[in-house]
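Data deposition worksheet. Section B asks for the primary sequence of the deposited chain exactly as it was used as input, without tags or linkers unless they were present during the calculation. Section C holds the resulting structure in token form. Section D is free text for depositor observations; keep each observation to a single sentence. Incomplete worksheets are returned to the depositor.
Section A, Depositor: J.P.
Section B:
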Amino acid sequence: MIIGNDKPLMIIGYVESAMTFEFLQAINNDESCSCEVITPIYFYSMLEKSKYQYIVSINFDLKERLEIINFLEKENLDIFTVIHETCVMGSKPKPNIGLGSFIFPYTIIGLGANIGKHCIISSQSMIGHFTSLGDNCILRPGVMIVDKSTVGKNCVFNLRSSVRRGKITDDVEIGEHSQVRKKNITMSGKYAGYPLKKIS
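Section C:
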């Protein structure tokens, strides 16, 4: 499902990126629309940006990604959202999914979950009931954030990491297979392991 308007779709990213390929494949599977990939340099050089609507696929260079998102919002450009048809979502109350987010195949979004703008929720991840995720968060495959956990902005959760009953501040990265259990993370930085430790 694509949530947007009638303007042509543009993915801002790199053709050689696996993430961009996944974005493009999911969007073009919808026979009612087609999409084009443009690099950030090309995007900035475009003269008539307002003719299109955009989604940002870059997920490794987080600084570049955030700069593009800030530019889109500053210029008040149209942004679209993608929720894959295989995503299972709760109802009553329905989850809230912010503009510019991309929900990959085989994900679960629980009742009353709140997902911010420009988030990437990768395949086989789970956002539990009444869990909150801030803007521009990236979940790699197999991540679980459950039990009414709260996550700030610009956070990254690597492969199969998990959060249960946790509260996490902005700009935190959780290492792969790491676990946050009934713990509050109040300092930005990178954390890994179980028990969880700050590593940078």
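Section D:
The longest helix spans residues 62-74.
The radius of gyration is 16 Å.
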